[in-house]
Structure formats: C-alpha cells, structure tokens
DNA sequence: GCCGTTTTCGGCCCGACTGTTTTCAGTCG
C-alpha cells in the first residue's frame, strides 16, 4: 500500500514534467513521495487518523489525492492527466540522457509513447533530425536503451562495498592523490547503491582522471571532464569521480555524499547566512570564497555539529543538529555479543568450539548458539532430542573457554504457517535465548501473516524476532506485514526485533528500525552467521541501525553483557 | 504544490558535462 501511493505520486510528477508543468509543482510531488517513503510507518494509518498533512511536504492538495485513491481506488486527477499525456511515456525517463523535455519532443513530433517505439525510431535514424538532436544524441539514446536492457538495478550494499574498497586503493596509489573518499549512497550505507561516487583531492586533476578512466575494469567512459568523470565497469557498476584541489576537498566530499535533499537543506541554511554553497566552496555575495579542506569545516561554517553520513537523508537531521539533539550513534565496537549464529548442529559450517573462537577473535563477550528448529528440513533443523546433547557440548566448550566468552544455548525456532512455534513451550523454556523467525509461507495475506508474527511475539518464551519481514535483497520483498501492529506488540511484550546484518537481508530496514525505536522497541543486531567470516557482516547491520538513529541504549547486544544476561534471565 | 526566525505571497539549491549550438538547452547528481 505504501509503495503504491509513493509510486502514484512519482508517476504524477513524471507526467507533469513531460507535460511541461512548472517545476516546483513537480518537485512538490517528488518531495511528498520521498517524505512518505522515509516515514517508515503506514501511510494508511496516518490517513485513518487524519494526519496526512502532518507529513512534511504533504499539503491539502496531495492529502486529498491520497484520500481519493485510498477511498475509491481511483484518482480522477491522474486519469485526466493521462488523457493529456500517455502514462507509458514515463518509461522513457529510465533511459540515461533522456529526460522529460526529450520525451515530450519524441512524443509530440513522432508519436512515440513507449520504449519499444523509441528503440524502433532510434534504429531507423528518425531521432537525429529533430530539433536539438543529432547523430551523437541518437546513438547515446540507443546506448542508453541497451544499458537499460542489461541493467541489474541497484547493487546490493554487500556487492558495492568490497568493490569500492578496491577502487579506493587503486586511486590512492596514483601519484599526486592526497585524499580519496567514497561518497554517495554507499557512504550513507544505503541498503542498495545506484552507482559509486568518489572524491579525490589532488592539485592536478588530469593524471587522476586518466588513471580513473583507464582502470582495467572500465568498459565504457560515460563522461570525462576536468573536475568530474564517470565510467561503467564490466560488472555493471558505474562510478563517478570528482577531483578537486585538496583545499576544497571538504565541500566536494560533503556534496558528493548527499543525499540530494540533505544538501538542499544545507544550501538553504547557507543562504540564510548570506552564503552560497557549492561543491567547490562557500561564496560570499561579493564573490569571495571560503574554502573547506575537511567536511567538518563545512558543517562548522553552517553552525552545525558534524552530521554522520548515515543520517544525511533529510529525515530531520539538520533540524536536530540545529537544536543540538543529534543522537550519539551506536558504533561497531559497542556490540559485545552475537545472538544469532548457526553451527554444524544445523546448517552452519563450524562446530561450537570453532564458532566460539571466531567470536572471541572479534572481541565478543557472549555468543548464542541458535540453530534451526526441526521443521526447517532444508537447514537440517534440530530435533527436540538433539537439544540435550547440544547442551552438553556447549557446557564442555564453556568449561574450556572459562570467563572469556559466555555461551548461550538458544535456537532459531520456526514460526509455522498457523503461527504456532516448532518447539513446545517447555522446550523453549529450557533454552537461554529464543529467536522466532518466518522462513516459509511469506506470501500469506497481510492479516494472516501479521497474526502469525503477533502470536510469536505474545509467546512468553520468545526473546527476539529474527529478520522480521523476510525480505531478500534484491529479489524478494518482505511479507506484507502491518508493521505498526508488530511494533506495538513488541514494545508491549518487550520482545526485541532483529536487524539481520547480512547484506542480502538488512531486515528490519532503516526506516522500520527507526519506527521501532520510536515505538519503544529494543533491537538486536545479529549476523545470522553460518561461517567465521559471516561474523564480520555485523558492520552492515550496525550501519543500518545508525541510519535508524540508533544509540547503544536501543540495542540489546550493545548493552554491557551483565545487563543483557540479567534481561534474558528475567524473562525465563 | 508546499511553506513561513526576512514570507499567508512569493519564493523554492548549484554547477559540470555534453551536444547542438553561434550563446544555450538538456540532463545529471
């Protein structure tokens, strides 16, 4: 439902833009869509309470349209608009170098309304003779169409991150490069990344640009200039590089990190101080410049404390910075326990001792062994009778480890299709910690799947709900859950919700995690490790929690271990 | 279409790159 409304507003914006409507009306629809997306809550719920106009960027007109659409399933405004501008024209905007003006041109001059008609016209050489077009523009559009056809959408964080590290090392090795930093959505640690934005500080840009566009994995140079170049790599990731003099590195990095909306906020703030802010400098009305070599100087100039990149989504961080109420964000080093990990007792690769050693190496003070319960056959789930033998092994390893690491016997118990749990209550009661998770029947109706999860939350033996929505990036959307109901129940029963740190899950996502915190729910950031190296994925989970404005207080396994253990004991 | 510590009307962020142009329009981030 949320996504449908957001898509609806974006479609209106696109069509208005092709129609040639004043840009600010278009921006208003996009801003409202962004704002609703960042809400993290249920739009229908806000609508039911008559609070739509309290959402920033949603005023009377857009609220009425949302109301009409929810109430009737239709929107007269959009229908009228589509009578003027074919709805399928928005497809064209996905093509690189093709914006609303050209889409309108192709439609009005050649009657093109969709991608296949566009491709036919481009191949027939019909585009080059249009005003403002030429042979190069035509072939760029063809290239854009081909790129679209093989596009793998946004790259998951887990794929973009390691490649970016390699690229940074490559750029650092270029003579004359004084600083290099990743920016963009990757620095903000968004779950998926469109392309890589990189900023380098160097006195002479040309050699850096040549090295960048000459990288061995580059298959296509999309643009090349003195301060900015962009390329496409063989594995379909694109990257752009800004090169500025080191004394301008701060403004450039701030700019390239975004988000766009965050940058707009900063520029508004700069204007109020009589300054104009760009990627190269602050500028006074008389034209003189204020240079910033570091990003901290940019924020300082605006009278703001440094805002961590993960917060820069225009979700209230600038207002909070002005008010001095930015949260002290959780750090990776704050996590003291791994509470979700698998061993050879189910589908893990390591035995209990090996996993314990791996956890110790990473500085953990506690480790929960949480193998799958029996009904998850594919994962070799434990039978009830296995639990006693597993407990004996855990006790033996604990004796070897002494006080260095506290082991907990737990399990990841399956929430069955009817909402009952895989193990009976007296078995769950014998365990130190219980995670309940959905793995199957994720396609159930909203009402049914929500009830399933609520039933698990209400079970007094359940401590944590694992990867609550079951989403898999990029292929599977999560279950259609009433998240607000989940948050309320979790808060009431003091059940923690997991941020599963695996980059293909990141579940809860950032927006949901923030709503959870606001609802008084505790989080648990877990890697769901099946091997030693999986334990290092914690980093991505912490980043997601930081995007949710999470402090150590919000996260169970960032508490001192004694507090965590007594919390668990108090629930047994 | 939205919004208010210069405003309830008149604003709404800034610059680089490219291609088609004889100074600029379109697109992108």
Percentage beta strand: 5-15%
Helical proportion?
40-55%
Could you state the oligomeric state of the chains shown?
Answer: single chain
List the uncertain runs. none
C-alpha-based Rg, rounded: 26 Å
CATH top level label of the largest domain: Alpha Beta
> What is the 3D shape?
globular
By CATH, the superfamily of the largest domain comes out as: Metal-dependent hydrolases
Tally of individual domains: 3
The CATH level-2 architecture of the largest domain is identified as Alpha-Beta Barrel
CATH topological fold name of the largest domain = TIM Barrel
Q: Biggest β-sheet, characterized? A: 7 strands, parallel
Order of strands, widest sheet: 11-12-13-14-15-16-17
Describe this structure as you would to a colleague.
- The chain has 23 helices and 17 strands.
- By secondary structure, it is of the alpha/beta class.
- It is globular and about 80 Å long.
- 44% of the residues are buried.
